[in-house]
User: Fold this.
Amino acid sequence: MNAQRRDVLKSGGGVTMLALLAAAGWLKPGQALAADGWNAAAFATKSLDDTVRALGGSAPAPSTDISFVQTPDIAENGAVVPVGVTSAIPKTESIAILVEKNPNMLVGVFDIPPGTAPSITTRMKMGQSSKVYALVKADGKYYVASKEVKVTLGGCGG
Amino acid sequence: MNRREFLQAVAAAAATGLPVVGACAQGSAAAARFYDSAVKPFGNVGLLHFTDCHAQLSPIYFREPNVNLGVGVAAGQPPHLVGEFLLRRFGIAPGTRDAHAFTYLDFASAARTFGQVGGFAHLATLVQRLRATRPGALLLDGGDTWQGSATALWTKGQDMVDAQKLLGVDVMTGHWEFTYGADRVKEVVERDFAGKIDFVAQNVKTADFGDPVFKPYVIRPINGVPVAIVGQAFPYTPIANPRYFVAEWTFGIQEEAMQKAVDDARAKGAQVVVVLSHNGMDVDVKMASRVTGIDAILGGHTHDGVPTPTLVANRGGRTLVGNAGSNGKFLAVLDFDVKAGRVADFRYRLLPVFSALLPADPAMDALIRRTRAPHAAKLDEKLAVTEGLLYRRGNFNGTSDQLILEALLAEKDAQIAFSPGFRWGTSLLPGQAIRMEHLMDQTAITYPYVTVNEMTGETIKTILEDVADNLFNPDPYYQQGGDMVRVGGMRYTIDPKAAMGSRISQMQIAGKPIDAAKRYKVAGWAPVSEEARAAGGEPIWDVCARYLRAQKSIPSLTLNLPVIRGMEGNPGMSA
Assistant:
């Protein structure tokens, strides 16, 4: 365990991580919530096809070069489900995560600048068991992979 | 390994792993020799394994299931075989000690003939005899050791921790241990176990940074050969049990991390890699097909007593998968012949622990007596007498659950009652007294609250569907390993092969269909939510004890079983 790392976070008290980063000069004020490029239409979509369209693409091709990492089969807590996606597709430009049964499907779009490893992890909220999509844009084209993540009522084990 | 080699390997395993069968095993001379062939060693690396003893320090009865359905690729495969189907598959003669140990057949009468099973004092004697012929053999404990009895609950697992140390457990992993809370687990691991027992779990990490909480594996020399034991705790602990006990830890199957742990251990010189697992057997079989470099997975959680291990082929070779039953009833013996730095051959036996054939070890016997003494009056209180056989294990209601459901319906004046599909809980023969100790064997948990809620028919269906999917999802990684929730007051039909959300139908109460919109009064226990803990609720054992004292005698109970569809011919169900 890295107690020091944990202490640094706790020592912030009411100060958020973002504020700490800003104070350290790693983040310019306002940058965390930058409105530039916010695609409101994409975040309001209800289907995979609609999301791809709102992002400016069409008909994603299924790909086995996209893999889920650190993503549970059964979520321990639907409110914070870890999810990670790694793309082995050359010239990956962005990775988006979608949850089929969430009220709004799109969880987030991560831009992958050239020279960056196309691998992202985050945490998301899920209301019920659902298919989770990883949508990759590479060299202008869209690719997709999916995985089932269960959100159960719990109990009754073993 | 190609298909033909694999089949040959399976045939060889079946030949070598034959359980001990004696046609006249009932005779005292033959009985005395019951363990002789197992005591004879093989190869140069010995491992002993027990799992899911559920804190049963004293000898008990434990009836194996007559319904243990497999779906998908697991259909008809071990461990999903019961009764005659199991005997036939493993070549066990009916009417023998082994037939009694591995099946439910003619249970009450066979139990009277062959006597009780398990008990740590008897297990200790067997462990000593096997160790005497196996230099440096390790004793592995698969977990679910600190929970399942009154004394374990009342001492927060301390009675079992002391017994593990005296028994000489070398390595363990866990599941129900975590229901005493993260602090208690750490306390035992850091204080009681220090320098004696390694608690290993590669799949338990801190929720914030993903730091390991326990050692992922240990490498111990056995007879001069470095052997790695990798721990796999129950992956769904924070889901199947209250998350608040381990709020800062995360679990999961974590296949990639398992592969890394195995590769690390090999890189550090381990010539044999064994996973001590609490996955459940179906999950172990799938994991064995996808992770390479594991010689054997010694598993538990699903309480399957499987006489012969399953050999699973994968990209790197093959992995042996065993599951060693529950309640102290079995001890697995795995002997490896390690030559030129790798496993050349093996022998595996799952030995039933027949208490009458193994004299009690005096030191362990004394420890158990000391443990029980302060609680004797409470443990021994006679609550009622049972006229029928009481048992729990099976995919659907057992008679012990039926009794709990009837107590809930009566004492809480409910229309419907739910009782969790736990797989632990000992058996009582017809005519036996139900003492407080026996009631605690069915109920001793750290979240025993009884709940009474108004639920709509729709909610009731959602719950049944959810639990059914945790049991019957065709992909084992989506299963949690409990049995179906036990149901009283209502009827239903289940189609295990149907898709999630459409397995349950024909829900009825008092002969009428359950209305999706109407509310029903439902009693239950063992809630996993923090709200339920805050609300309190009477402990389930108080409710049941009150009911039993009033009844005095419990007649043979009729099981409220669902109508099961689509499982005709499945050998996981008695004909």
